[in-house]
Amino acid sequence: MLDVGMGRGTQALRLARGGHEVTGVEREPEHLAAVRAAAAAEPEGIRSRMRVVEGDGRDTGVHFLPGSFDVVLCHGVLMHVEEPDALLAGLGRMLAPGGLLSVVVRNADALAMRPGLRGDWGGALAAFGAHTYRDEAGGEVRAHRLDALSQALAGIAAPLVAWYGVRVFSEATEIPEAGAALDALLAAEERAGRTEPYRRVASMLHLCGGRD
Known about the structure:
Strands 3-2-1-4-5-9-8 form a seven-stranded mixed beta sheet, sandwiched between helices. It has one domain: Rossmann fold (3-Layer(aba) Sandwich). By secondary structure, it is α/β, with parallel strands linked by helices. It has nine helices and nine strands.
């Protein structure tokens, strides 16, 4: 598996613990230090399944041969990229035959939901028809629409095979740290994220494209 924009490695570590061979690409020094420290604390069997590459997700062709990975993950990255189509094309080239490209983006068709659920009515009104939003740090980042991203996946020969909504309910509630309350919230999110019409108003979209 290739995890592009792996951040602090939470996802990559979970996959390595599950027995997968994972290569992560990250460019932020703070994140690189965090993931390397986290990996160093793991047993040797898990550490040996992880590889961390310092670099930009747009330069995968510099580091890897085409068709090198069965699964390519790009979660929470496209919103920060000026030319997301070029990044997607590069990730598509990394897929082996039968491979899967997993992408998580902000849902542009539901941008009004987040401020609306928080009682920010001015923000909700301004979000209708928008293509960008302000992240938690105050920066302007892009959102994506399901139909457009589905077309982009088809254009790189990894057409959409499944999609899900992410964070349907949890944008408007405090997330429990652990226990039965968290389990119940996750179960509700899992169900809503794959059920119409709830998944269409999710804060995020998870799209899976498959290479024939």
